[in-house]
């Protein structure tokens, strides 16, 4: 049985992983960035400490630091045991083992938890959910969405994907989504219909390789302009 999860879990990647997943250049990092579904990732903490401008949105941010930590502790063993059972679906190069995956993710999530109280006060972590966002049209230069759209295709409909991408594109000049695989390391069932529908509506869509691959075959992002 392929990698499966009953629900969308809080699981966070690092600033360095975001840079690779989205092939972010110095110019990209100088944009005002929207991190959508950032959860307990440490991208916001990392970019803010380097002087960047970033706002993260996720329904997880309705919870306190202590509540998020408890939730991470609750899902941690399940995610690692699903990964162990399905180890062939992943590339064990930069992250050489399940144990080091646990450590890498925990380091990123701890960096997030350390930054969260300050960032919440500063309005960098907002309790908001796709498919509707209360931002002004064109408020951001770049919107990033990691490990939510496409990955959770079994949980999220095609219509939800279309509405979410249109909304992200309304608030940001450019969107990047990674990965394009769903759980189980197969191409998202929504990928072709999303490309077809949005192209017909006049969006410019490109699928480009990136220097990051952990899910086997998951080394491409979608850019929507
Ligand atoms: C697997 S985590 C990915 C976290 C981070 N982007 C990363 O790659 O490390 C998926 C996140 O999607 C968030 N999420 C669930 N429903 C959402 C919605 N409607 N809008 C935005 N984010 C949502 C969850 O709360 C969770 O934090």
Describe it.
The chain has 225 residues and is α/β, with parallel strands linked by helices. The protein has seven helices and nine strands; from the N terminus they run ααβαβααββαβββαββ. It has a single domain, classed as Rossmann fold (3-Layer(aba) Sandwich), CATH 3.40.50.150. It has a seven-stranded mixed beta sheet. A two-stranded antiparallel sheet has the order 6-7. Helix 1 (15-21) crosses helix 3, helix 3 crosses helix 5 (98-121) and helix 4 (65-85) packs antiparallel against helix 5.
Q: pLDDT below 50 for ≥5 consecutive residues: which ranges?
A: none
Q: At the third CATH level, what is the topology name?
A: Rossmann fold
- Please identify the structural class as seen in this structure: alpha/beta
What is the count of DSSP helices, taking H or I runs of 4+ residues? Answer: 7
What kind of sheet is the major sheet? 7 strands, mixed
Helix content: 25-40%
CATH superfamily: Vaccinia Virus protein VP39
CATH class assignment = Alpha Beta
Shape: globular
Quote the beta fraction: 15-25%
Number of strands: 9
Provide the succession of SSEs: HHEHEHHEEHEEEHEE
What's the mean pLDDT score? 96
Biggest sheet: strands side by side, in what order? Answer: 3-2-1-4-5-9-8
CATH architecture: 3-Layer(aba) Sandwich
- Give the termini distance in whole angstroms: 37 Å
Distinct small molecules bound, one entry per kind: S-adenosylmethionine
Radius of gyration based on Cα positions:
16 Å
Number of domains: 1
């Amino acid at each position: 049985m392929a990698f499966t999860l009953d629900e969308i879990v809080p699981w966070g990647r690092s600033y360095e992983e975001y840079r690779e997943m989205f092939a972010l250049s110095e110019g990209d990092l100088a944009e005002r960035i929207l991190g959508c579904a950032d959860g307990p990732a440490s991208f916001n903490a990392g970019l803010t400490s380097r002087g960047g401008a970033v706002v993260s949105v996720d329904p997880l941010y309705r919870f306190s630091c202590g509540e998020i930590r408890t939730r991470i502790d609750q899902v941690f063993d399940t995610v690692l045991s699903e990964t162990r059972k399905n180890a062939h679906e992943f590339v064990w190069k930069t992250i050489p083992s399940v144990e080091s995956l646990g450590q890498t993710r925990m380091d990123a999530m701890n960096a997030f938890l350390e930054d969260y109280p300050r960032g919440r006060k500063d309005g960098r972590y907002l309790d908001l959910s796709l498919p509707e966002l209360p931002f002004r049209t064109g408020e951001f230069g770049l919107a990033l969405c990691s490990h939510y759209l496409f990955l959770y295709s079994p949980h999220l409909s095609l219509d939800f994907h279309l509405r979410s991408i249109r909304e992200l594109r309304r608030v940001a000049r450019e969107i990047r989504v990674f990965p394009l695989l769903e759980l189980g390391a197969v191409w998202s069932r929504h990928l072709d219909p999303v490309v077809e529908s949005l192209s017909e509506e006049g969006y410019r869509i490109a699928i480009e390789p990136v220097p990051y691959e952990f899910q086997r075959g998951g080394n491409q992002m979608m850019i929507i302009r």
